[in-house]
Amino acid sequence: MGKKGDALMGKLYEILFGCRHVHLTFPITAGEARGTYVVCLDCGKEFPYDWTQMKIGRVA
Ligand SMILES: [Zn+2]
């Protein structure tokens, strides 16, 4: 299997087991209204990031 097959297997894994969100971007600050968040590079989901606790906050 080539690269395309690997990507397909990854997608299948996500569908079957859900994304574990292990590959996250560095926290992005989007301004007062949105605050700071990180984005999962695998599924594209955004998570609020709490600077005061230095961890990912509750998923909205
Ligand atoms: Zn994810």
Helix proportion of residues, in percent? 25-40%
Strand order of the largest sheet: 1-2-3-4
Mean pLDDT: 83
Helix/strand/pairing category? alpha+beta
Show unreliable segments.
none
Kindly, what is the distance between the CA atoms of the first and last residues, rounded to a whole number of angstroms? 37 Å
H/E series = HEEEE
Count of DSSP-assigned helices:
1
Q: What integer value in Å does the Rg equal?
A: 14 Å
Shape: elongated
Summarize the main sheet. Answer: 4 strands, antiparallel
What are the distinct ligands in this entry?
Answer: zinc ion
Tally of extended strands?
Answer: 4
Approximate strand percentage: 15-25%
Describe the model.
The protein is of the alpha+beta class. Helices cover 25% and strands 22% of the residues. A hairpin with a 4-residue loop joins strand 3 and strand 4 (55-56). The model has no long low-confidence stretch (mean pLDDT 83). Bound molecules: zinc ion.
